[in-house]
Design brief:
Helix content: over 70%
Structural class: mainly alpha
Shape: elongated
Number of strands: 0
Number of helices: 3
Oligomer: single chain
């Protein structure tokens, strides 16, 4: 195989790898949207999720907001809240 043929083959391989990564990324996003979000609409254990729940837990514990029946403050959030009050 000549140099041009090798270059074409490498480009085709890279193109296939890029298509594979695109498909995998799409599948991951679909799975996260289907299973990865809680009632707040955020993905658990991300910084945004933790910030949302910490602020909400503070309001609930201060009596400024009610927790709907059946909904609970996540355990990791309460642990982070208690650690922040110890400091």
């Amino acid at each position: 195989m000549n140099a041009i043929g090798e270059c074409v083959q490498r480009l085709e391989e890279r193109s296939e790898q890029a298509r594979t990564m695109t498909r995998l990324s799409r599948r991951i996003r679909n799975l996260e949207s289907a299973f990865g979000r809680d009632r707040s609409g955020l993905i658990p254990h991300t910084p945004e999720w933790m910030a949302h729940w910490l602020a909400r837990a503070r309001r609930i514990l201060a009596g400024a907001e009610e927790l709907p029946p059946g909904e609970k403050i996540p355990f990791d959030v309460m642990r982070a809240y208690m650690q922040s009050t110890d400091e």
